[in-house]
Task: inverse folding
């Protein structure tokens, strides 16, 4: 238990140690710790913000999808309507065309029948004249009886 | 050693309580004795602490810390939390002070866990019998009253410095003479100067004494117990209980090592905090 020069030596050592710690150890490490604390706090805040943003975005997406779906339904309805209209028009046109063609064909048939009837009438007239000629070759003067024969041909 | 003729446990312990002393003065006056073992061990430990923490402080990153940095930061944050709780002010010098005290005292105390005969054995092995015969070496600097008094007196200066800085030279002097007994009229004030001053001197001086004696007593006592237990191991009969006691005491001593370092640090902070208060 004697106090001697060692005491002074230890005091000086201690002073040096405290100086060194204050100057070279504490500021750097404490700076790093505080900076990290700030970073962590910022990170947490950013995460919170991101979560809120994500929630907003989700809501937006939901409304957007709803709208898109509505629009799609509308478009499909319209398209269907248009298709129906086109179909109706096409059907009407086709019917008209058919009717037109049918009328034309009937006309043609009628005119052809008429012509055939005319020809037949003429041939029958000629035939009748020829037959009559054979029968009454001598007795009938074609010039004198032409008016009668024409009348006959018209009657047939 | 127990087998030496005049030996026995008493001599063994007395042998181990001698310091490695050098004296540079011409007349070998006792005050100029220098306990080389305390100085060297404490210096090496202080330097080791500085180097260790400085290496991590140098490349300290605010990103993901390495395990080593995390350990160093753990120590720093532990000390800083204690300082924050007790001392409300600018911690830029107080926490480093507390950290140095805590780590240095802790490391010096921890030397108590090394075997008591390790130093002697090393000297014996590497320097030979002749040197070992008159070389003493005590491993625990805090079991030397010089170390603890050196620390606590330095702390006293720091505490007084904080007091003067917080109140100014005049305010500090005035408080020395007018507190803790206050009076309203000038004559009573004058009479109270003497008891106030005496009380303050006692109060101030009691701080380093209690700091130094507490740490010294704990470590010295711990070391003595280790030596007593080591005395058991001279005989094969008591060897096993010796090992058991030694282990048990070492485990218990870990608590004392950390606790005494913590107490020294805490009291320093408390002293600084009270020195900054106005009375």
Result:
């Amino acid at each position: 238990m004697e106090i001697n020069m060692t005491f002074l030596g230890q005091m000086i050592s201690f002073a040096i140690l405290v100086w060194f710690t204050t100057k070279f150890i504490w500021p750097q490490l404490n700076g790093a710790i505080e900076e990290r604390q700030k970073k962590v706090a910022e990170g947490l805040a950013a995460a919170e913000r991101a979560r809120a943003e994500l929630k907003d975005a989700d809501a937006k997406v939901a409304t957007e999808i709803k709208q898109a779906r509505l629009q799609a339904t509308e478009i499909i309805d319209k398209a269907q309507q248009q298709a129906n209209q086109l179909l109706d028009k096409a059907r009407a046109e086709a019917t008209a065309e058919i009717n037109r063609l049918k009328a034309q064909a009937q006309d043609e048939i009628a005119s052809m029948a008429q012509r055939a009837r005319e020809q037949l009438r003429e041939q029958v007239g000629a035939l009748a004249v020829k037959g009559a000629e054979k029968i009454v070759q001598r007795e009938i003067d074609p010039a004198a009886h032409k008016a009668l024969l024409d009348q006959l041909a018209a009657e047939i | 050693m127990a087998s030496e003729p005049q030996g026995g446990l008493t001599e063994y312990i007395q042998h181990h309580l001698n310091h490695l002393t050098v004296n540079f003065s011409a007349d070998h006056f006792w005050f100029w004795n220098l306990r080389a073992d305390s100085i060297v061990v404490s210096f090496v430990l202080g330097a080791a602490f500085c180097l260790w923490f400085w290496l991590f402080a140098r490349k300290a990153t605010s990103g993901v810390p390495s395990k080593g940095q995390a350990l160093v930061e753990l120590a720093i944050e532990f000390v800083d939390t204690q300082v924050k709780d007790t001392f409300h002010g600018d911690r830029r010098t107080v926490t480093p002070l507390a950290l140095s005290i805590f780590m240095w005292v802790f490391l010096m105390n921890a030397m108590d866990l090394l075997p008591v005969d390790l130093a002697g054995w090393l000297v014996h092995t590497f320097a030979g019998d002749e040197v070992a015969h008159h070389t003493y070496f005590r491993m625990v600097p805090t079991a030397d009253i010089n170390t603890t008094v050196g620390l606590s007196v330095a702390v006293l200066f720091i505490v007084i410095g904080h007091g003067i800085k917080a109140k100014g030279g005049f305010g500090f002097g005035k408080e020395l003479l007018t507190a803790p007994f206050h009076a309203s009229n000038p004559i009573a004030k004058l009479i109270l100067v003497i008891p106030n001053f005496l009380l303050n001197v006692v109060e101030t001086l009691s701080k380093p004494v209690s700091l130094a004696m507490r740490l010294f007593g704990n470590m010295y006592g711990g070391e003595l117990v280790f030596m007593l237990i080591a005395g058991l191991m001279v005989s094969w009969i008591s060897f096993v209980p010796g090992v058991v006691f030694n282990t048990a005491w070492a485990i218990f001593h870990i608590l004392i090592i950390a606790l005494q370092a913590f107490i020294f640090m805490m009291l320093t902070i408390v002293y600084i905090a009270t020195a900054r208060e106005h009375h």
Notes: Chain B has one domain: 9-275.
